[in-house]
Design a protein that fits this description.
Length: about 250
Amino acid sequence: MENGSFIKINILIPPQKYIANSFVLLSYIIIQNHILEKLIQDLTYQIEDENRVSMAHLSEKDDEIRAVRAQCQAITVELEKLIVEKVNLDAEISKYRQLLEGEENRTHGRIISSASHSFEPTTQTNVHVRSSAMRRVTGTNRSDTQRSAQGNVSILEVASDGSFVTIENTSVSHDEVIGDWKLRSSGSGRDITFTFPKDFRLTPKSKVTVYARGRGIHAPPHSLVFEAEDAFATGGDVRTYLYNEENQV
């Protein structure tokens, strides 16, 4: 270097060598290109395989979803049928319940229950019953008994010695209010009437015994005492009636 100037050195490469180097570089590039193309092809095949597997899985899931939907639809249809059947059944039950309640209410304003008895001195008991709601009359004498009843309240038992009369509510679901109802016992020239206390109620399948004075204890609602009489009617032809609150026969 002289006077602040640089010395420029030119290196010349012979053309033959330059061309040879270019061929080597081109061959390397071609090889690398083939490698990359092969890699791209492999990756493309892998993606296609994964897509096919995914589509197969999706198809299976779609089939499962369709099967579940079909099952749900069948269950829905069956449930709708059951709901319709239940509604119809509830309607039938309601209709029959109304018929039963109407039949029970229809009996108001009439003699609710009656029983007639004839007593003869013997130790046997013979009972003739005209109502499935009636029960056996017990006593120490022979009794021929005929009974009838309408509705749920009936005369269950009449003592042959006139000591008591038992009334029963045969319903299994309804209370019966028998307040102000009258229990009439007639026979052998006697006509006795007992009036139940106001708002007196018989629960389902319950009974109440009305005792003559001195024949039992006063323990409502299970037992009542008729203080006005020491015995109900007795004799050869006794008739016992239960009237509703309107005193209508």
